[in-house]
Amino acid sequence: MAPSRLGRSWLFALLVFLALACATGKGAAPPPLHPAAVRLQEEALALAARDDSASLERALGLLEQASGLQPGLYQSRADRALVELLVAARRREEAARLESGDALMQSGRELRERALDELRPLVREHAGDPAVVRALAVYYGLEGNAAQTARLVDRARAARASDPWIDFAEEAAAVRNASPEAAALRLAAFVASHSEVLRARVMLARAQLDLSRTDDALLTLDEILAANPVHGLAQELKARTLAPPPASVTVVPPVPQAVPTPRTTGYLPHKPSSGAGDATRGP
């Protein structure tokens, strides 16, 4: 029998824990990075921060190119998993808001599992690498697992300088477990210092809409579109917010037509017979 999704998540968390605990930094030094591949990775993460569908697809393509330039560049595989996790989370969020979003929800779940399949060997072999830790942190953050996210965030911050994706993972986990008011406050503070991560701005706009703060949400959406005019979800949310409410239709029962007064049953005079007619004539 195949393990349940909960069981797979538990096993994956155990794998992450054991791999990170055993990561000692020993062994051969990694090969030098191909400069062009590194540039492609950086460009891909910048595109992912723009958060529109075309940019996310382009980011995946650039990471494929980076892997082609340097097949052993496992960091690009970790970054690819990160981008796939972002796309998967978007699909699941949108599906949850649709009346008939089952197919989109299933698509998001399948993409998330594919990203995790890509991450598992990287966790076993390169658990302490910043790119692998970053992708894992984003996964747990989007899932709302605050404990796992906090542990990975601490590890990442101890190993390198600030990383906006690590900060995003921390916020994503926090707001999933916060009230709408607290989530809006946290996201507003995050956006003020990480304006380039448009996914967080979308999350802020949604939180503001949930609080019926329509004007604030429209301002946030305008800021997203100023930074990225082709952000399709921001366009859709703005159009939906500005749309007039459905007109309320009052059903008025039809006025019954006046029933005409029934007439007395009529009769037709008998047609006089030809003989009777002749009898009335004079001689």
Nutshell version of this structure?
The chain is mainly alpha-helical and 283 residues long.
Description of the structure:
- By secondary structure, this protein is an all-alpha fold.
- The chain has a domain at 179-244.
- The chain contains 13 helices and no strands.
- The protein has helices at 5-22, 35-50, 53-69, 74-96, 102-125, 130-143, 146-159, 164-176, 180-193, 198-210, 214-227, 232-242, 274-279.
- The radius of gyration is 34 Å and the shape is elongated.
The biggest sheet, with number of strands, parallel, antiparallel or mixed sense and barrel status, is: none
Order of helices and strands: HHHHHHHHHHHHH
**What Rg is obtained from the alpha carbons, in whole angstroms?**
34 Å
| Overall average residue pLDDT | 85
Strand content: under 5%
Rough outline: elongated
Low-confidence stretches: 21-28, 279-283
Draw up the topology in text.
Layout: H1 5-22, H2 35-50, H3 53-69, H4 74-96, H5 102-125, H6 130-143, H7 146-159, H8 164-176, H9 180-193, H10 198-210, H11 214-227, H12 232-242, H13 274-279
Helix pairs in contact: 1-5, 2-3, 2-4, 3-4, 4-5, 4-6, 6-7, 6-8, 7-8, 8-9, 9-10, 10-11, 11-12
Features of this protein?
mainly alpha; single chain; 13 helices; 283 residues; elongated; disordered C terminus
